[in-house]
Write a structure and sequence with these properties.
six-stranded antiparallel β-sheet; 2 domains; globular; alpha+beta; Rossmann fold
């Protein structure tokens, strides 16, 4: 690690049910002992890390350390993508994971232990992957970027229920799914890509870059975060019984083999939905709202420290 390298550390004190705040003195001491030259800031409200990373970039920082979960990383990435002074791939992110699901790190075998995570960052091996861009159609909303998986329908509905159970870690997603079963209704959607349309009643539509989501679930067939393509799973009109029967298959990846699940590889698609239905949209476990959306790939836009 170059002695001239400066780091900006962003800590979400609420991540991991408050673990980030409790562990910060130890993390700070480890960074100092490993020779990191850094400034730091705590997030103080939702999406604050978005602005913090932009301020850091304006101060010429190009190396960011994220201390938090998938949501904190998601917001940092959006902060990078929503500035234009530096190419996004020139900003390098290290992750010390402390969150509920910690799903993105599973694809790259980034460890949960603080010292091991810091050692990976210090070693300085950079990787890059694609990002997804979500644009809301017929709505005056900024684009949202994601690095792991976006979903619309039951997937987003579960995210809307997870917050109150986050103290249970990844188990929160299972509880959210069970609770959601009793109130979610499948919705009508039109998915358009490569000049074709799929019109169907659907449980959810999943658009993946990486392998895991929802606390370790594997919901897309063959994701590859740097092949320039989304891995799309269209879960059609699955019933509550179908979901209960296949609960374990959500985690071992076999759900994509179900006769009511259709899989595609695409670089751009649009999803139109009946706004009267439960069409919740989530990206990287963050609830975005409702609406018709277009999703497109930004190749190799995310640069990070990994094994």
């Amino acid at each position: 690690m170059s002695s001239a390298k400066r780091w900006f550390v962003i800590i979400n004190p609420t991540s991991g049910n408050g673990s980030s705040k409790r562990k910060w003195p130890k993390i700070k001491a480890n960074l100092v002992s490993e020779g990191f030259d850094f400034d730091f800031a705590f997030t103080e409200y939702a999406n604050h890390s978005n602005g913090l990373v932009q301020d850091a970039i304006n101060q010429q920082f190009k190396n960011i350390i994220c201390i938090g979960g998938d949501g904190t990383l998601h917001n940092i990435i959006n902060g990078i993508q929503n500035q234009s002074s530096v190419a996004s791939s020139d900003i390098h992110i290290g992750v010390i994971p402390i969150g509920t699901g910690n799903d993105w790190i599973k694809t790259y075998n980034i460890p949960l232990g603080v010292k091991r995570a810091i050692s990976i960052i210090k070693r300085g091996l950079l990787k890059s992957q694609d990002l997804g861009k979500i644009e809301f159609l017929n709505q005056d909303k900024k684009a949202t970027y994601f690095n792991n998986l976006a979903g619309i329908g039951f997937d987003g509905f579960v995210v809307s229920k997870v917050g109150k159970y986050k103290f249970l870690g990844s188990l929160a997603y299972i509880i959210g799914a069970v609770v959601g079963l009793f109130s979610f209704k499948n919705f009508y959607t039109i998915i358009s890509f490569n000049g074709k349309e799929i019109k169907t009643k659907s449980l959810m539509v999943l658009v993946g870059l990486c392998k895991y989501s929802g606390g370790g679930m594997q919901l897309t067939k063959n994701p590859n975060p740097d092949d320039g393509l989304f891995d799309v799973s269209i879960a059609k009109d699955l019933s509550k019984f179908d979901i209960v029967k296949n609960l374990f298959n959500l985690f071992n990846g076999n759900i994509v083999k179900h006769s009511k699940v259709e899989n595609h590889k695409v670089n751009c698609l649009s999803i139109h939905i009946n706004l009267e239905e439960h069409s919740f949209i989530q990206a990287d476990g963050e609830l975005l709202g409702k609406g018709n959306i277009k999703l497109s790939i930004i190749p190799k836009a995310f640069s990070f420290y990994s094994n």
